[in-house]
Amino acid sequence: METAQNSKPPLWILSDMWGWSNALWKELYLTEFAPYFELSFIDVRTLAQIPKNLTDEQSMHEYYLEYGIDQCLEHLAHQLIPGLSVIGLSIGGYIAWRLSTLQQSRLRVVCISTTRLRYELPKDIQLHFLIFGVNDPFRPDDQWMTQYPYNYQLWNQGGHDIYKERGVIRAVSALLKK
Questions:
Q1: 40 and 2 Cβ atoms separated by less than 8 Å
Q2: What is the pLDDT of residue 127?
Q3: What is d(CA 161, CA 144) in angstroms, rounded to the nearest whole number?
Q4: Model confidence over 110-144: pLDDT tens digits?
Q5: How high does pLDDT run on average in the chain?
Q6: How far apart are CA 25 and CA 38, in angstroms?
Q7: What phi, psi does 50 have (nearest 5°)?
Q8: Of all residues in the chain, what percent are helix, strand and coil, respectively (each to 5)?
Q9: In 131-147, which positions are buried (b, 16+ CB within 10 angstroms) versus exposed (e)?
Q10: Distances from the Cα of 26 to the Cαs of 13, 34, 97, 163, in angstroms?
Q11: 148: closest CA among 120, 176, 106?
Q12: Which of 30, 80, 93, 98 is least surrounded, with the fewest CB atoms within 10 Å of its CB?
């Protein structure tokens, strides 16, 4: 976990399944959020202890589901702090959602492209906002979205990787600065 120390409100940004090591778009998040938040970029691939020899998406996804998500939760649950906001990208959003269900946590959470939520029936959680690309074939269906009292947005013309787009990052920044 990389952290910039100051008196700004805390913000964790949980990576997608690939982690931060090759995420050239990480700089967009740094530029947008660093002036307003104490940032921690959390590499969920590292926390999940994904073996280096797993490089294909399917194998990595299975590892996350069997072991990795629980590894991340075990590590992060002990580090929750008051006033924390969390942005989760894809699988990172699922981990953020799971964190929000622990011990009545009061996290402010934004999940971007967290398609795994379509299998969940979230109750009594503190999700702040969900964002999906309108063209993401794995996003929850409209019935799922309207069943729950969360704010959500379908990003026009976007697919699963919308969390890499400057416009989405700016929209999330505007939400969290409110």
A1: yes
A2: 60
A3: 21
A4: 999 999 988 876 554 556 788 999 999 999 888 88
A5: 88
A6: 19
A7: -65, 125
A8: 40, 20, 40
A9: bbbeebeebbeeebbee
A10: 10, 12, 21, 10
A11: 120
A12: 30
CATH for the 2-176 domain, from 3.40.50.1820, 3.30.70.1060, 3.30.1130.10, 3.60.110.10? 3.40.50.1820
The predicted pLDDT at position 101 comes to 81
The answer to whether the CB of 165 falls within 8 A of the CB of 114 is: no
pLDDT at 52 over 80: yes
Looking at residue 54, its pLDDT comes to 92
Q: Which two tokens stand for residue 52?
A: 């280096």
Six token digits for residue 124? 């009594």
Q: Is the pLDDT of residue 75 over 90?
A: yes
Structural tokens at position 167: 């416009």
Nearest CA among 165, 161, 143 for reference residue 152 = 143
Q: Estimate to the nearest angstrom the gap between the alpha carbon of 33 and the chain centroid.
A: 15
Give the model's pLDDT for residue 81.
87
- Count the residues in the chain: 178
